[in-house]
Structure to design on (126 residues):
C-alpha cells in the first residue's frame, strides 16, 4: 500500500520559463510539492504516470496539440478528482466555458488568492 504524500502535489503547466519558475516558487513557498510541465501534452504524459497529483495550475495559451483550457476539460474527463486552476494574461474566460470545479485567475494574479485557492482545493475532504 502506498502512503499518501506528506505534502499535496501541484502540477504547474506553463510554457514561458520565467513564468513557470515564478509560479513554482509561489506554490513551493506555500508548502506544496511541485511537478513542472512546459506544455499540455507534457502534462498529460506526467498525469498518466503520476496518480498523486492533486491540483493542476495551468496557463491557457501554450503551444502543442492543446491549450490549457482543453487540458482542463481533458483532466476533468480522465482524472475527475484532480482540481484545476487556470490562468491567462491574454483571455478572459466565461464560467460556462470552464470545466466543473475549476478556478480562473487573470494575470497578473493576486498571489495570496491563488495560494488560498490551492490550499482550499488540496484540502482533504471532510
Amino acid at each position: 500500500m502506498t502512503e499518501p504524500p506528506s505534502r499535496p502535489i501541484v502540477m504547474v503547466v506553463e510554457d514561458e520559463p520565467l513564468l513557470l519558475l515564478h509560479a513554482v516558487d509561489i506554490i513551493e513557498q506555500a508548502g506544496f510539492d511541485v511537478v513542472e510541465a512546459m506544455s499540455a501534452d507534457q502534462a498529460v504524459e506526467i498525469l498518466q504516470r503520476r496518480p498523486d497529483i492533486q491540483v493542476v495550475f495551468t496557463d491557457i495559451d501554450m503551444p502543442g496539440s492543446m491549450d490549457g483550457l482543453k487540458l482542463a476539460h481533458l483532466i476533468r474527463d480522465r482524472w475527475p478528482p484532480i482540481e484545476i486552476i487556470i490562468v491567462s494574461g491574454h483571455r478572459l474566460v466565461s464560467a460556462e466555458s470552464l470545466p466543473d470545479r475549476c478556478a480562473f485567475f487573470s494575470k497578473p494574479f493576486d498571489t495570496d488568492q491563488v495560494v488560498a485557492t490551492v490550499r482550499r482545493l488540496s484540502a482533504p475532504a471532510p
